[in-house]
Amino acid sequence: MSQAGSQLLPSGLRMQAYALLDLLLTLSELGRQLTDLDYDSMIIRMIVAEATLHPLLVTQKKQTEMLDWPELPESVRASISRVLIAERANLPRETVRRKVNALIECGSLEDAGHGKVRGNHLLESPAAADKVASGVQAVRKCMMRLEAASRVADASSNQVRLAHDADAIKHPRKQA
């Protein structure tokens, strides 16, 4: 029952929101466990890793033979500027500068020169493979929840449609 004067939420919305929140929290925790970093540093690390891998995995010239190599050649590893990291992370530039320098010092990032950085070879550790597998499992769980929410929304939509059709049968409009 809805409160007087308020509209109902779209069907399945709360289920979808919960599925996505659970996924984000699970992935954040897995990332924290893998890197043992504070959240700002972890976000920076993820932004740099995505930028580093982008040419290999997203560009039109995918280098599929390299996907399982333990180390990637410089030619397929991109870099990203601290300014762009700050923009993507929505963090102050000074915070990004300090955290990137700390990440370079501890070996989590590599200085690529000209104010840019790139990710290192984090996936080489056995712990990384375990965390990636757990992350994939979390995504599958989220997808199942989203599919269930979609079925609830479809069922609700069908009920509304049936109620409308029944009302139209009971009260046909007069044709002009």
Describe the structure.
With 176 residues, the chain is mainly α. It has one domain: Arc Repressor Mutant, subunit A (Orthogonal Bundle). Helix content is 61%, strand content 6%. The chain has a 3-stranded antiparallel beta sheet. Helix 2 crosses helix 3 and helix 2 crosses helix 4. The longest helix has 45 residues. The two termini are 38 Å apart. The mean pLDDT is 84.
Q: What's the CATH class label?
A: Mainly Alpha
Task: List the uncertain runs.
Answer: none
Structural class: mainly alpha
CATH topology: Arc Repressor Mutant, subunit A
Distance between the termini: 38 Å
CATH superfamily, called what?
Winged helix-like DNA-binding domain superfamily/Winged helix DNA-binding domain
Q: Helix count?
A: 5
Q: Give the DSSP E fraction (strand runs of 2 or more residues).
A: 5-15%
Instruction: Please count the beta strands (DSSP E, at least 2 residues each).
Output: 3
CATH architecture: Orthogonal Bundle
Quickly count the domains: 1
Side by side, the strands of the main sheet go 1-3-2
The helix content is 55-70%
- What is the radius of gyration computed over CA atoms, rounded to a whole number of angstroms? 24 Å
Topology as a string of helices (H) and strands (E): HHEHHEEH
Overall average pLDDT: 84
Inertia-based shape: elongated
| Main β sheet profile | 3 strands, antiparallel
